[in-house]
Amino acid sequence: MCQTPAFSVRKTKREWFCPLRQTLPLPVFLKGPVRQQDINTNMVSLICTLQSHRDDVNCCAFSGSLLATCSADKSICVYSTRDFSELPFSPLSGHGYGVHYCCFSACGQYLASCSTDATTVVWSMDSGEIEAVLEHPGRSPVRVCAFSPDSSYLVSGGSDGTIALWDFTSRTLRRTGAVTDTSIVACSFTPCGQLFITGSTYGDLRLWDLNMNHLHAEKNAHDLGVSCCQFAPQIMKGPDGCVQFRLASCGQDSLLKIWIVSLLSAAGIKMQLAHSLTGQSDPVLSCAYSADGQMLVSGSVDKTVTVYQAYQGILLYTLNQHDRYVTACAFSPTAPLIATGSMDKTVNIWRVEDGSGAQDQAASVSSSGGRKSSGHSRLMVREWSAEDVLAWLREEGLEAVIDVFKCNNIDGEELLSLTKETLSSELHIDSLGLRSKVMKKIEELKMAPVSNCTPDEYLCPITREIMKDPVIAADGYSYEREAIESWINTKSRTSPMTNLPLQTTLLTPNRTLKMAILRWTTCQ
Length: 524
Hints:
Elements: E1 22-24, E2 44-50, E3 57-62, E4 66-71, E5 75-80, E6 92-93, E7 99-104, E8 110-115, E9 119-124, E10 130-135, E11 142-147, E12 153-158, E13 162-167, E14 172-178, E15 184-189, E16 195-200, E17 205-209, E18 214-218, E19 226-231, E20 236-237, E21 243-251, E22 256-264, E23 268-277, E24 284-289, E25 295-300, E26 305-309, E27 314-319, E28 326-331, E29 337-342, E30 347-352, H1 357-364, H2 386-395, H3 402-407, H4 412-417, H5 420-425, H6 432-447, E31 470-472, E32 478-480, H7 481-490, E33 508-509, H8 511-523
């Protein structure tokens, strides 16, 4: 059987290859080599394997357009997520010892990396040049670093238990703290950027504010030590109105845990264990949330990668393509991609299919025999094709204007923008009666309600239309991208749902909701 690569590239001095596209079907969890009969095109696909590093891969990090990986070989490699080719200035060489961790600033302009050489280095992603070298207090090896959501701050944790909080704008040390008799190996900022959490080899999770006040300690969160922790990107509201965050942590006890962190006005901080996930048989070394907070990925000593539905902790996929411990994992914030790094010196790139291939079929084929639908399922009219508009004209008895609409290639968005004036001046429909009839039908179309059986969570809170490109705003609610962007641009930076100020205007794709909407519309 001929095995054709997903795509080919010119080999560089640090070779990498793209193997046969391999897809793991749900719910079969594959062990060992993927066979042709196991390959499916619906769920998770191994699309690329990067082989640039000469030693263990310790961390993977995505920005909107780049992937960075760091290794015990002292280097950081940077790739374009367009085709996963290595950038001209990659690899980055500036550390004297192995690089433990790397992370991008919110805008992707900077990359921070930390090392056993006791430094956190800030790199420019425009040139690959070193912007700053931050020396850790006490010259301790630095095990982890993390940016705040708005990149105002950078926190780093040392092997001696010290914590450094840096003012990133000025590249100066703002505060220091310490946890005795342990190493800080994990840290993450809350999505509001006002708090951060650290995890240690002693097994504790500790929450801090920006003044380095110690707010809460969850002792023995993981027996034998914490390996990684990350907050979900969304802010939630508790039943009593308090602010809540979701936190994932993993450790040497072979568990991946999901916590609910509540900020109580009177009683301070409360951490409650929501799920303890046992999908991997050996210590879990890394974990990461998707940008929409709906999925959670983890890597383990047992060589597997597991992907969970984050809210209920349901195991979705178990991926087995690494030969040694899986030490790193990350979701892309802008594409349905996962990167996993391993002690086998490779980085695997996986695509999580979002069902978009079914979108055209769902939109164009009706349930009554394959005829083109005019959109009476009440999907967003502005997404109709020109053919959908012509079908609608026929059904509404407007055959007299079909040739005019066809010649001008009028699609759904243009249909909704038509006026009596444009019908006359641009489409040259001379009959006043015909223009009035067309406009009446267009107004009826605009006013037509969405089907009463549509789940409310599929409707944009602003437009009350079924969402096509749902995104999550800083208030934790999902909106149609175009609608919330318009809201932010034309109104004050407040939440449409709570009327409270938005901490950031950053929008993250809600891919899980998009998949659910596509599945639902297919069945209508």
